[in-house]
Amino acid sequence: MTTTAPRAVGRPLARIEGPAKVTGTARYAVEYPLEDVAYAWVVQSPVPRGTLTSVVVDPTAEADDVLAVLWHGNAPRLEQPDDPELAVLQSERISYRGQAVALVVARTLEAARRAAQVVRLEIDVEPHDALLREDHPELYTPEEVDPDSPAVTQTGDVEAAFAAAPVTVDVRYATPALHNNPMEPHATTALWTGGDLVLHDSNQHPPGVAAAVGAVFGLGAERVHVITEHVGGGFGSKGTARPNAVLAAMAARVADRPVRLALTRQAMFSMVGYRTPTLQRIRLAADRDGTLTAIDHQAVEQTSRIFEYAEQTTVVSRHMYASANRRTGHHLVRLDMPTPRWMRAPGEAPGSVGLECAMDELAAELGMDPIELRIRNEPRAEPESGVPFTSRNYLACLREGAQRFGWEGRDPRPRRRREGSWWIGTGVAGATYPSSVMPSVARVRREPDGAVEVSIAAADLGTGARTILTQIAADELRLPPERVRVRIGDSTLPRASVAGGSSGSASWGWAVTGACRELRDSGRDEATFDTTELVERQDTEGKHAYGAHFAEVRVDADSGEVRVSRLFGMYAAGRILNPRTARSQFIGGMTMGMGMALHEEGVLDPAMGEWVNHDFAGYHVPVHADVEWIDAAWLDEADDDLNPMGSKGIGEIGIVGSPAAIVNAVWHATGVRVRDLPVRLDKLLPQI
Amino acid sequence: MKTFAYTPATDVESALAACTEGATFLAGGTNLVDLMKLGVATPDALVDINRLPLRDVTELPGGGLRIGAGVRNSDLAAHPLVRRDCPVLSQALLAGASGQLRNMATTGGNLLQRTRCAYFMDMTKPCNKHAPGSGCPAREGDHRNLAILGASEHCIATHPSDMAVALAALDATVRITGPAGERGVPVTELHRLPGDTPQDDTVLRPGELITAVDLPPLSFARVSAYRKARDRASFAFAVGSVAAAVAAEDGVVTDVRLAFGAVAHRPWRAYAAEQALRGRPATRQEFLAAADAELAAAVCLRDNAYKVPLIRNLVSATLARLTGEGA
């Protein structure tokens, strides 16, 4: 039975789970009511490097309530995981400060915490090295950078181009360690039923977590049931299983009862990944008319002793602008520090600080409008690969965005506009993010009441995934959205790809579309569709979303305080499936970009081997008062070479380029180039 | 957190009686509860003073205000007499924390909040304040927002309160009751400089309770302001702040009160700057010279030297605005 309905895709449907969230009935990982539940508290290493020889438990501390204190001396043995971070409490080796070295399991949360605070660790401490520097003797070039790109590329003769160029820019930009701080911390409730494991876990990929946690306990993924109904944000840090999931499962086995484990905010700064600090050197060579003749973008980054994560910082410079000569590279050093991981737009976010700020510096050098400079370097096909773009409306974003923002008539000279104590300036930067898709499976079933159930093991991080999948299915089946019930957030549902890389909607939406079409065409009551073959057949090159960010800032001449008066993003990101949730994604990314430009920094104490500002009082993310005026708009674009919806991912592009637009605006306001982020008053004050 | 006893008190007498060794008073709890979770504060008992009759702002005979120690920051900031007679205090309160925190935080508790130095807040790190004799890693480590005035080799912590900076400028007196009776301490002398005993924040003796803060009449405090510089627009501790009240006649400063925040272990009353300014022309140049007179004593570390020009500029800008001179 089908009824006709107006198209749902493209309409601003409210989040389906919105009422449950705002009324507090939506359950997160450690909120499920359970009988006889115990609580686990992680004891973290207080030193960055050494050997843990013993854990001494105070027998008087919360003795009535403590059920177990686990460490490598007594913890159950695990199978060797693919990700060494999941081999928790298996080794005496301490590889970074904040690493989980023991776990207290107790009847109450307070008792677990107190007992963990008074556990005594006996450690043979070794000298450590926590400081990233450009001249580090142990720098090396990895084979690949995230996810699977070459670390180094070169076309043409870069040095000859620099030697011949009439105008060059050679600058160093630094971005600090940045920390994923979703509202819901990494958290797990674990219980064993028979020999099988149930995890209520906050993550971005229930099937992946089931497989990874199952593997360390010697279980097939089918014997681990991961339930992830609601997730309070992830930003990449929940893309793979984190130590909390394994620790909770281990504790539940030892304590023989359900165990809840939620990381503290402080623990999240070391235990769940972060964005590596980057030291970038970017050189641009150009003719007097602004034509780029060479781009050379090199990045120095860190990883940990136990896992190589290589951020793809300079990959953005491989395809953003045309240039006959080009060189990009990544250089890593292993430090006694936690392992960096994905954080919203890994690579593109820090890399476009270097590229888009350097473009601004080149424009100033040439006396040219920075938008015009970008227009003059528009490639005809994707540089390096030579593959035509499936769609690229970057220039349209720059032009349309400039018009809406009010760019015309801007005096390009810095330090010209003063109102009271404020210096005022504007800046622009480009944005791009790859449009990728990953294999997924969806199942659609007709219910006796005429509704349709759509099932896929996807995760909704608060982005609106559940809602847009409902819209997609409704349209394919010509049903009103109210008649579609989407089940996600459960690893036992058909296999979905990770909610990451801005690929969720494209990947899951494709599978849902396929299943709905099959249901429709077959006339049966159930259909399942697997996109694996279709996805693997696709060429991955030449597929990107684009945007342009515009910022107006004011800088207080007395204090050096920076405020963003206006922040605007103009995007060309395929068909927008739901304007309400899309706007939220865009302005959320832009706000996070503001944090990257002005506020956020993991402040390293090299002697401690730790970021010392590991809470929300010390690690500043933008608050409402920082966001004075923000807006996002998009061009009417549909790219049917990507997926049946014609959509591109939008979760990350907002943080790409928005930091550079703000940094460029600060220069325009004050005439001061701050090249190490965040741009704070202590860096500006001596120069304004 | 460590298990503790809990005693709600309903009057000052019973609160004092309940505050035996190992006990501490609980007011708004906006700082203490955090410190207890972190293991920095480990009281055996909490004496809840929220029900004490200390919630009123009253006019003192002869002028001035008595502010009950239990008056919430939000209520004090909104009080009509505070807004009229000493806007600097209202502004300082509203510059602090967030709306939710101001609704809980009290006048007495705000004065007694502890430094937010990252090392102090982390029991896995050395800190002479939480573990006397263990050292001060902030001197070599993260001290961007730590003290430039009155610090010692043992401690460079700053007092985090905005409110206290305004009270210091207003010559406020803290009313204290304890086992040995009542006394009054100028707010400028409530907090100690760290010296070689940085574990002691204040001159309060064991078992003593702040009951009120008295504001003396200060006619020119109606021309006053609080200027706070911070790393984001709201919900951030000051990186530098200035509380100022000024009286000027015919372009000459006749009297002035100045205090600085986020520069020392206590709200820093800038006596030297005040002295340098009295009787001087109300010009930017004189304001800067006055600030320099105070900041000559500054001792900066690797990453906090910016506070000197910051405070200097804030003094000048704030006084210029208040006097309408030399904008």
Description:
Chain B: Residues 1-220 form the FAD-binding PCMH-type domain. Chain B: This is Molybdopterin dehydrogenase. Chain B: It comes from Couchioplanes caeruleus subsp. caeruleus. Chain B: Keywords: Oxidoreductase. Chain B: One of its GO terms (molecular function) is FAD binding. Chain A: Residues 23-127 form the Aldehyde oxidase/xanthine dehydrogenase a/b hammerhead domain. Chain A is of the alpha+beta class and 688 residues long. Chain A has three domains: 17-27 and 437-537, Aldehyde oxidase/xanthine dehydrogenase, molybdopterin binding domain (Aldehyde Oxidoreductase, domain 4, 2-Layer Sandwich); 38-127 and 181-272, Aldehyde oxidase/xanthine dehydrogenase, molybdopterin binding domain (Aldehyde Oxidoreductase, domain 4); 139-178 and 275-435 and 541-683, Aldehyde Oxidoreductase, domain 4, CATH 3.30.365.10. In chain A, 24% of the residues lie in helices and 25% in strands. In chain A, the strands form seven sheets. In chain A, strands 3-5-1-14-11-12-13 form a seven-stranded mixed sheet, with helices on both faces. Chain A has a five-stranded mixed sheet with strand order 9-17-16-15-10, with helices on both faces. In chain A, helix 4 (206-216) links the parallel strand 12 and strand 13 (224-227). Chain A is globular and about 75 Å long. The mean pLDDT of chain A is 97. Chain B is α+β, with helices and mostly antiparallel strands and 327 residues long. Among the domains of chain B are: 1-51, Uridine Diphospho-n-acetylenolpyruvylglucosamine Reductase, domain 2 (2-Layer Sandwich); 224-323, Enolase-like, domain 1 (2-Layer Sandwich). In chain B, the strands form three sheets. In chain B, strands 4-5-8-6-7 form a five-stranded antiparallel sheet. In chain B, strands 9-10-11-12 form a four-stranded antiparallel sheet. In chain B, helix 5 packs antiparallel against helix 8, helix 10 runs antiparallel to helix 11 (284-295) and helix 11 (284-295) packs antiparallel against helix 12. The longest helix of chain B is centred in the last third of the chain and has 17 residues, at 307-323. Chain B starts with a strand and ends with a helix.
